[in-house]
Design goal:
Radius of gyration: 17 Å
Structural class: alpha/beta
Helix content: 40-55%
Mean pLDDT: 91
Number of strands: 8
Order of helices and strands: EHEHEHEHEHEHHEHHEH
CATH topology: TIM Barrel
Shape: globular
Number of domains: 1
CATH superfamily: Dihydropteroate synthase-like
CATH class: Alpha Beta
Largest sheet: 6 strands, parallel
Strand content: 5-15%
Low-confidence stretches: 10-15
CATH architecture: Alpha-Beta Barrel
Number of helices: 10
Distance between the termini: 12 Å
């Protein structure tokens, strides 16, 4: 999943794609470089980000989504607002990627009626507050429990399990230690039976580990997504598609050889929505 943020304030690419033409060109490049989905977002979810009105978010994302769909690109929309999701689905988006876990009133029904795939993420609090002393007893167990509850709730709301992927929300209300524990615990999330999406790309905890500024974190991002795939992740959300595609190709080869060596008892990768 390649990222295109049509925002002035996203932590990595905010302001880079101010025009529709620039954003469309980036989406087309991601697709040509191997992204199976291009994720379009119009509201920053970086720590401390202020909310964006639905009308403004729609103004940012809709022309980009419409153009990319016309070009045959598979598009997901990164939003927590039902009205934005509804417009994106009408324009041809096939996945709604919601960091709020489809908890906003009306979001589940919009996605059910639209018959789209959804990505259900875990976030502690909201972007304005999520990094204010996040605390867990056992972060992997608590995130897994939350995702299981959301799967149950969404199933009751008319979204079948085969259209749902799950995201532990790396960096969304987590410390460095929490992020590493969740990455180490991907296998526990895989047992929920749904594709696991991992979004580590260029995030602050990678900078903490390496000392690299945000624009120099693609190598460590590739390392993190490669390990995630080996451990069972099915989708990786990234800014630099070629780096990640190479890491995933190698990781997939290792998964296959290990499964062969283990008599096909290795990690089971679920199909994305």
């Amino acid at each position: 999943m390649g990222v295109v943020n049509v925002t002035p304030d996203s932590f990595s690419d905010g302001g880079q794609f101010d025009s529709v033409d620039e954003a469309v060109a980036e989406g087309l490049a991601h697709s040509a470089e191997g992204a199976h989905l291009v994720d379009i977002g119009g509201a920053s979810t970086r720590p401390g980000a202020e909310p964006v009105a639905a009308d403004e978010e729609r103004r940012r994302v809709m022309p980009v989504i419409e153009r990319l769909v016309e070009e045959g690109v598979a598009v997901s929309v990164d939003t927590s607002k039902p009205s934005v999701a509804e417009s994106a689905i009408a324009a041809g988006a096939i996945v709604v990627n919601d960091v709020n876990g489809l908890r906003t009133d009306g979001m589940a029904s919009v996605c059910a009626d639209g018959a789209v795939g959804v990505v259900v993420a875990h976030m502690l609090g909201d972007p304005r507050t999520m990094q204010e002393d996040p605390t867990y007893g056992n972060v992997v167990a608590e995130v897994r429990q939350y995702l299981q509850q959301r799967l149950n709730k969404l199933g009751a709301s008319g979204i079948p399990a085969e259209r749902i992927a799950i995201d532990p929300g790396i960096g969304f209300g987590k410390t460095l230690s929490h992020n590493l524990e969740l990455l180490s615990g991907i296998g526990d999330l895989v047992t929920l039976g749904r594709p696991v999406l991992i979004g580590t790309s260029r995030k602050r905890f990678l900078g903490t580990l390496t000392g690299r500024p945000v624009d120099q974190r693609d190598v460590v991002t590739a390392a993190s997504v490669g390990m995630a795939v080996v451990d069972g992740a099915s989708i990786v959300r990234v800014h630099n598609v070629p780096f990640a595609a190479d890491a995933v190709a190698f990781a997939d080869a290792m998964v296959r050889i290990r499964k062969r060596a283990d008599g096909d008892q290795g990690v089971e990768h679920q199909t994305a929505p």
